Amino acid sequence: MRLRFGVVSAHPRRDWQSARLIDSCARRGEVEVFRPSEVGLATDGGRTLVTARGRDAAGFDAWILARALGRRGDPDFQCAAYRALEGLGLTVLNPVDALLRAEDKIETSFHLARGGVPTPPMRAVQRLSEARSALAALGDVVVKPPYGSLGIGIARIAAGDRDARERLATLLDRHGVIYLQAWVGREPAEDLRLFVVGGEVQAAMVRRARAGEFRTNIRQGGSARAILVRPELARIAVSAARTLGLVYAGVDIIDADAGPTVIEVNGTPSWRALFEATGRDMADAISAHAARLAAHARPRKEAGA
């Protein structure tokens, strides 16, 4: 029997990653695409159901949350529905609580440090006086919004900058909380993106910032090339993904003088630049792993049906 994949995406064709996942799943089985606003919950005669466009979501072997939240519907309810999918024993990539941990950079840093994964010192505070004390303690920092990607809204501030207080105040006023991560990079700025699927690094690249820029993101003008990953880096990347509960993830590492350190983990990672640099399409790795998990779970699912 062919596997059935349910893919949730707010932008199923406009989002390059979603489109690649949909096409890859279609090569392995049957696939149907749902928008986040099309999931629901139901009870009927003692049965509890997650529904997708009104149908029982248990009819699918695996669910992939490609872009699980959108502008339509209620995001809190959508997260509850995804948790219910997991609670019913269905295969879900990535688990929603893992996605939420990874989305919040502050929570990511906290869980990585607590789990023993090397990550830079950080401070997250809500008062300007504490932000200034944190800057003094950490020295040169990268200040990031709690949520976001692609390097948008990130600033680098040094304790000796003349306008440091004003910049901290502006960022604190904008976000309500300020997240300062110790700068551990070199010049010119570069980092490593390792893509983990199912406990293995599937591909990796080094990203280098353009001249005069510290952000390595490709959207910010950075460049990338494929690399072979030494075992130490692979272990750290896999540990970071596992610590957050992610089945697949993009793990960003700086190979610092004091040793490798994880600066960020993305639970809905883009891999377009990685594909262009390495020729490896992570959609194939993700769909293959989803198929393995679903095939392993199918006997238990059928026995409980």
Quick synopsis:
By secondary structure, this protein is of the alpha+beta class. It contains 9 helices and 16 strands. The chain folds into 3 domains: 3-93 and 284-304, 3-Layer(aba) Sandwich (Rossmann fold), CATH 3.40.50; 101-105 and 110-116 and 187-267, D-amino Acid Aminotransferase, Chain A, domain 1, CATH 3.30.470; 121-182, ATP-grasp fold, A domain (Dna Ligase, domain 1, 2-Layer Sandwich), CATH 3.30.1490.
Plain-language structure description:
With 305 residues, this protein is an alpha+beta fold. The chain folds into 3 domains: 3-93 and 284-304, Rossmann fold (3-Layer(aba) Sandwich); 101-105 and 110-116 and 187-267, D-amino Acid Aminotransferase, Chain A, domain 1 (2-Layer Sandwich), CATH 3.30.470.20; 121-182, ATP-grasp fold, A domain (Dna Ligase, domain 1). Helices cover 36% and strands 30% of the residues. The chain contains 9 helices and 16 strands. It has helices at residues 16-28, 75-87, 96-103, 105-114, 128-138, 164-175, 231-244, 272-278, 282-304; strands spanning 3-9, 29-34, 39-44, 47-52, 55-56, 62-67, 91-93, 122-125, 141-144, 155-157, 178-182, 190-197, 200-208, 223-226, 248-256, 259-266. The strands form 4 sheets. It has a 5-stranded antiparallel sheet, sandwiched between helices. The chain has a 4-stranded parallel sheet with strand order 2-1-6-7, with helices on both faces. Strand 1, helix 1 (16-28) and strand 2 (29-34) form a beta-alpha-beta unit. The longest helix is centred in the C-terminal third of the chain and has 23 residues, at 282-304. The radius of gyration is 21 Å and the shape is globular.
